[in-house]
Amino acid sequence: MKLLFALISGFLFGIGLSVSGMTDPHKVKGFLDITGNWDPSLALVMGGALLVGSILFPYITQKKKPLFESGFSLPTKNDIDKFIIIGPALFGIGWGLIGLCPGPAFANLLVAGKPIVVFTLVMLISKVVTDKLKT
Fold first, then answer.
1. pTM score, two decimals?
2. Domain residue extents for the chain
3. What is the DSSP string of the chain?
4. pLDDT digits (tens, 9 = 90+) for 89-120
5. Is 98:116 a contact under the CB 8 Å cutoff?
């Protein structure tokens, strides 16, 4: 049941990305082009997600556990280390250069051709390498 709901959640997330246009790398690059032809639609999508999340998060975390898990997986670490600085910096650089992050990359995987497949493979390899470096 847990796997089914993970699949449904991922599918709904992908639909949301597609409907909002966030699977298009040009949208992201347009958002980052603040001195040119700026496109604020990404800020509106992120703002909507932030609004919904900030309203529902306190309600959901008051429950004893999620529906299909034994407990919540919330961060326990509160110190800043090199991984908290380097990881987001690399993520942001890649996001700005390519115009995709993991969600839209996976949503585009079957329709956007070879460049997205290569990007996704490199992203997954980077994840494995990063996990190995952290241990």
1. 0.69
2. 2-134
3. -HHHHHHHHHHHHHHHHHHHTTT-HHHHHHHH-TTSS--THHHHHHHHHHHHHHHHHHHHHTSSS-TTSSS-------S--HHHHHHHHHHHHHHHHHS--HHHHHHHTTTS-HHHHHHHHHHHHHHHHHHHHH-
4. 888 888 888 888 888 888 888 777 788 888 88
5. no
